[in-house]
Amino acid sequence: MVMIQKIPVTILTGYLGAGKTTLLNRILTEEHDKKIAVIVNEFGEVGIDHQLVLNADEEILEMNNGCICCTVRGDLIRLISDLMTRCDRFDHFVIETTGLADPAPVIQSFFVDEVMLRKTQLDAVVTVVDAKHIGKHWDSSEAQEQIAFADVILLNKTDLVSAEALGELESKVRGMNAIATLQRTQNCDIPLDSILGVQAFDLKNALSIDPEFLDEEAHEHDESVYSVAITEIGTVDSDKLNRWLNQLIQAKGQDIFRMKGILDIDNAERRFVFQGVHMTLDGRPGQPWRSGETRKNELVFIGRNLDEAELRASFQDCFAQTYAHV
């Protein structure tokens, strides 16, 4: 009887802006002799995370307009089932969830579907924790679930907090999850053999956290957290953009959990990529624009008390010339 070689799966989770995409880029670009298929899920109707991933190609599969743990879980199961027909091409699957995902229903997918149960093996749930900003979201049920269900926890951005604060955070995390492997990181710099192929997931531990998590019941999200997506065509003036973003984080930074964008700045050869978490902003050149490609500006904001009309109008003031709405 021929044994079926199960494909290991890593679930990559963590609250908004913790560093999941940074870790994913490390997984895709460092030498590890694995052929990896990546599934990226986004919160909102405009998907741009695949453009934030280096060397993105047909192995980066994207799902948006919903949380991977509820409205698009059926899509996840179908997508992995389709990938199974190409199983000779892949050694490992990595699922990057939206920062607002409760990991329990994602884990559940691997046990309630016959194909997933027979052909995949959940290797580990890896949770990235933003050491600087997690305190603002500690009461979020999603952030707590992400830590509680983790097999490996990366306390990331340790360079941005004091040793005392880091020690207190580590004790707090340990109080919520005493069995996970805990690593301190900067920019998610960690040997990949610490997170891939570790065979750390244990169903008994998951059931001890939530005895009913294999039951197919809907879960609830914080309805006060939502996304605003903006898509426009036109060249953005860099000086106007800098002023707008700085004014925005000063006025609304506490309410903006996450922001990210792909922009056509000053008609440059490369797209401009910016990301932000609360009061912190980072921007740099991204992939080159292809010849003949429509240069779209795509922005996503996730947070509370977001005024969509105001965000759209203020962004329009950043354009260097007449533009068209998409």
TrEMBL record:
<comment type="similarity">
    <text>Belongs to the SIMIBI class G3E GTPase family. ZNG1 subfamily.</text>
</comment>
<dbReference type="InterPro" id="IPR003495">
    <property type="entry name" value="CobW/HypB/UreG_nucleotide-bd"/>
</dbReference>
<dbReference type="Pfam" id="PF02492">
    <property type="entry name" value="cobW"/>
</dbReference>
<keyword id="KW-0547">Nucleotide-binding</keyword>
<dbReference type="InterPro" id="IPR011629">
    <property type="entry name" value="CobW-like_C"/>
</dbReference>
<dbReference type="GO" id="GO:0005737">
    <property type="term" value="C:cytoplasm"/>
</dbReference>
<dbReference type="InterPro" id="IPR027417">
    <property type="entry name" value="P-loop_NTPase"/>
</dbReference>
<dbReference type="Pfam" id="PF07683">
    <property type="entry name" value="CobW_C"/>
</dbReference>
<dbReference type="InterPro" id="IPR036627">
    <property type="entry name" value="CobW-likC_sf"/>
</dbReference>
<dbReference type="GO" id="GO:0016787">
    <property type="term" value="F:hydrolase activity"/>
</dbReference>
<keyword id="KW-0378">Hydrolase</keyword>
<feature type="domain" description="CobW C-terminal">
    <location>
        <begin position="225"/>
        <end position="319"/>
    </location>
</feature>
<protein>
    <submittedName>
        <fullName>Putative GTP-binding protein YjiA</fullName>
    </submittedName>
</protein>
<keyword id="KW-0143">Chaperone</keyword>
<dbReference type="InterPro" id="IPR051316">
    <property type="entry name" value="Zinc-reg_GTPase_activator"/>
</dbReference>
<dbReference type="GO" id="GO:0000166">
    <property type="term" value="F:nucleotide binding"/>
</dbReference>
